[in-house]
Amino acid sequence: xxxxxxxxxxxxxxxxxxxxxxxxxxxxxxxxxxxxxxxxxxxxxxxxxxxxxxxxxxxxxxxxxxxxxxxxxxxxxxxxxxxx
Length: 84
Known about the structure:
The protein has a domain at 49-84. It has 2 helices and no strands. It has helices at 2-25, 50-83. The protein is elongated, with a radius of gyration of 23 Å. The two termini are 26 Å apart.
């Protein structure tokens, strides 16, 4: 039980850290001096990483949950076989 709480707290810290890093790093840089981007010659937009990152995190959580469920089920099956 302590191990699962440890992993949960670790995952929460990692998720909070990634959210603050995303806010600090994902901003578009300022345009270079000389008026670049003010007329038809626009600077390219930054690539959005929010949607893909969220999908990957959700898929990882689902995969981890499935693996945890399977491991718990195998452990319970092994205990039941030892009792029989």
